[in-house]
Amino acid sequence: MNSLINRGIEEFLRTTYGDDLVKAVAEEADVAQASVAPLGAGFGADALQRAAFRISKPHSEMLEDMGAWMTRIEAVRRLLRFSGRDFKDFLLRLEELPGRAHLVLPSLRVPRLQVDANDQAFWVLMLDHDRTWQFLLVGVIRGMADDYGALCLISVEDQAIRIEVWDEKFAEGRLFSIQHGTAEQGRA
Q1: Chain centroid offset of residue 161 CA
Q2: What is the value of pTM for the model shown?
Q3: Average pLDDT for consecutive 10-residue bins of the chain (188 residues)?
Q4: How far apart are CA 183 and CA 49, in angstroms?
Q5: pLDDT tens across 30-84, in order?
Q6: Nearest-CA neighbor of 144 among 116, 112, 129, 122?
Q7: Cα separation of 31 and 123, whole Å?
Q8: How far is CA 187 from the centre of its chain?
Q9: 128-147: buried (b, 16+ CB within 10 Å) or exposed (e) per residue?
Q10: For 23-172, where are the E strands, in sequence order?
Q11: CA–CA separation, 128 and 125 (whole Å)
Q12: What is d(CA 49, CA 45) in angstroms, rounded to the nearest whole number?
C-alpha cells in the first residue's frame, strides 16, 4: 500500500508542479538514500516536505492542495459523491469516510471523525488527531465544495476543522450520476 500512496504523491507533484520538481525531489531522495529508487519510491511524506521547501510553500498548504487534487481523480470523486446528495449532506456523512477508505484500501489508517453541525456551521473533529490527515481533509473538503458548487469558509481550529457554509448553490456544481460516465458541468 505504501507504493500506492508514494505513487499518488509523485503524480500529485508531477501534475501540479511539473517534471522538474519531481526530478529534483527524486534526486534528493536518491542522495539521502545513497541509491537509485524505483518509480514511486522516495515519494512519501518526506517528498511533500522537500517539495514544499523547494517552492517555499508551507507543508500544511501542500497537504491541502494534495487533498483537493485527489477530489479531481474521478474514482475518488465518485466515492466521495456517494456520501451525500448536497454539500451539507456530504459534510454530515464524513464520519463514514474511514470505513469507506478501508473498503478500498484495507491497510490505510484514516482517523475516526466526528461531525457536529449548528445552523450553517459544521465542525469535523478528528478523534485520533493527526495533523497530516487534518490538512489533507481540509483539501478534500475544499475540493468537494467546488464539486458541489458551494461557497464556504474552511478553517483549522486545534483538532477540528470548521466549515461555514454560506451558499450551497453559489456556482454550478459538477454533474454526478450513479451510472459510470464522464463528469460534465450541470446540476445533479
Answers
A1: 14
A2: 0.84
A3: 78 93 81 46 76 94 95 87 86 91 83 91 92 94 94 93 89 66 46
A4: 32
A5: 544 444 445 445 577 788 899 999 999 999 999 999 999 999 998 888 888 887 7
A6: 122
A7: 42
A8: 23
A9: eeeeebbbbbbbbbbbbbbb
A10: 113-118, 121-126, 151-157, 160-167
A11: 9
A12: 6
Residue 92 C-alpha cell reads as 454530515
Evaluate whether 149 touches 164 at the Cβ level (below 8 Å): no
122 touches 162 (CB < 8 A): yes
| Backbone dihedral angles phi then psi of residue 80, each to the nearest 5 degrees | -70, -40
- Amino acid letter for position 13: L
d(CA 16, CA 12) in angstroms, rounded, equals 6
Judged by DSSP in three states, 134 sits in helix
Q: Residue written as cell 505504501?
A: 2
